[in-house]
Specification:
Helix content: 25-40%
Number of helices: 4
Shape: globular
Structural class: alpha/beta
Largest sheet: 3 strands, mixed
CATH superfamily: CBS-domain
Distance between the termini: 21 Å
CATH class: Alpha Beta
CATH topology: CBS-domain
């Protein structure tokens, strides 16, 4: 799980998010409104949704590109439980949360582990 995930607001442009992903070497950012977790946007989400449609990425926001059907887990949840959730929802990642603090995606490392085999 990411110790300090990057968050963006839903009105952040697709281009800004893409640059943040590239510059920080990330595959995903959390989309939040205040303390509310609204969704998760991945580099794949950007490529498959707005970019492939040819929209103006400086004018288009991530609100329509982020996945919002989230499953949340607590940092102290059993790892087997988290893995089961991730496998059941493939390719949708699970998000770890601690009270109202967003901790970050846990789905990407599962994918990386699968890719290594």
């Amino acid at each position: 799980m990411t110790a300090a995930p990057v968050t963006v607001g839903p009105q952040t442009s697709v281009a800004q998010v893409a640059r943040a992903l590239r510059d920080r070497g990330l595959g995903a950012v959390l989309v939040t409104e205040g303390d509310r977790l609204r969704g998760l946007v991945t580099d794949r989400d950007l490529a498959v949704r707005p970019v492939s449609r040819g929209v103006d990425t400086e004018e288009t926001t991530v609100a329509g590109a982020c996945g919002d059907d989230l499953v949340t887990v607590a940092p102290d949840d059993d790892l087997d439980h988290v893995v089961r959730l991730a496998v059941e929802r493939d390719p949708e990642p699970a998000i770890g949360v601690c009270a109202t603090r967003h901790r970050g995606p846990v789905g990407q490392w599962l994918q990386k582990e699968d890719d290594a085999s």
